[in-house]
Design brief:
43% helix; DNA polymerase, domain 1; binds magnesium ion; 2 domains; PGP-like_dom2; binds 6-O-phosphono-alpha-D-glucopyranose; Rossmann fold; alpha/beta; 5 strands; five-stranded parallel beta sheet; 223 residues
């Protein structure tokens, strides 16, 4: 098992980790599901965390038994509709939307010389970082368009470590989604989950809240 002293880099998810956009994604998908007559549930909402735009749409259609009701062109239109609603909300964001403690954590990581990269499935990640005024912290972003497989496949986290020129076991991956924790584990990185300990039970360490994510607390858990 990796020791805290071996850690040199952090590979971050964005939505639900650095900012509360997972709520905005959920609201925009919920709206679309309502318009399609697909019943919404917390389980469906949680299952969509970390999942790419088109895969999310497929999951929603499947949940409603409607996976064969639309052509590819119609599906793309539905995904665009969701994205238009989502982006309108993103454009209202300010640095006040950074989750508690995350700015201080990023500042501490930077001051102590840890390397940072972003492993978000979102094509809107650069836009969100801009709104939060955090773009400077993440010059290294995995391009989700370059991926063959989404989370829980390890590809995005493997690429996140490669951008830092670090071996996987010297990186901590930070996630709020079960699919993301699975991706980090499969990439051979140390997994830090933020959220419900049962949902994120596969993580090497879980914090209930972003405010608890500090280097001291990580060191205590990792040893
Ligand atoms: C993140 C979010 C997902 C979202 C995905 C794609 O992984 O957790 O909820 O569907 O990004 O985001 P995008 O902005 O490209 O539609
Ligand atoms: Mg997330």
């Amino acid at each position: 098992m990796t020791k805290f002293a071996d850690i040199k880099g952090f590979v971050f998810d964005l939505d639900g980790v650095i900012t509360d956009t997972s709520i905005l994604h959920g609201t925009a998908w919920h709206q679309l599901a309502d318009s399609l007559g697909v019943a919404w549930s917390d389980e469906l909402a949680n299952g969509l965390k970390g999942i790419s735009r088109m895969d999310s749409l497929e999951m929603i259609l499947k949940a409603g038994g409607k996976e064969n009701d639309y052509t590819q062109a119609e599906k793309e239109q539905l995904a665009t509709q969701k994205n238009t609603n989502y982006v309108a909300e993103v454009d209202k964001m300010t640095p006040a939307n950074i989750l508690p403690g995350m700015k201080a954590f990023l500042d501490d990581l930077r001051a102590k010389g840890y390397q940072l990269s972003l492993a978000s499935a979102s094509k809107n990640a650069p836009r969100v970082l801009g709104k939060l005024q955090l773009a400077d912290y993440f010059p290294k972003i995995v391009d989700p368009a370059s991926l063959t497989h989404g989370k829980p496949d390890p590809e995005i986290y493997t690429k996140g470590a490669e951008l830092l020129n670090l071996p996987a076991n010297q990186c901590i991956g930070v996630e709020d989604a079960a699919a993301g924790v699975a991706a980090i584990n499969a990439a051979g990185e140390v997994s830090l989950g933020i959220g419900d300990a049962t949902e994120l039970g596969a993580a090497d360490m879980v914090f209930a809240d972003t405010a608890e994510v500090t280097l001291d607390n990580i060191a205590k858990k990792l040893g």
